[in-house]
Amino acid sequence: MIDSRITFDEMPAMLATIAERLKSIEDKVNHLTLPQQEEKDEWFNIKGLCEYLPSHPAEQTVYGWTSTHFIPFHKRGKNIAFRKSEIDQWLGQGMKKSLQDIQRDAQEFVNHKRMKGGRHD
User: How far is CA 64 from CA 22, 46, 95, in A?
Assistant: First the structure.
């Protein structure tokens, strides 16, 4: 390391130089780190979903799952679409309900239908 002594009078200029270099380094580091972006949710059609799912089911199987609401899906008109984030969550949960869950859901459904129809048994 070169021994260069800085006088008291040279201190303000030296601090300004150090501050400029630090700012330059900071700018370079900020350009290196990519801003974190939210991952855009991907949509699948039936064919894309079949390719994405680990078991690669037949399209007819997926249509059956949608008709029984076994799998999360979105439908607009005749078009069926699947959101990747919902499919990932569904896969992670296993989507298997216990007998008690099924019975509770059925009872809630019946109660809701009775309330809508105006009947209060």
Answer: 62, 12, 15
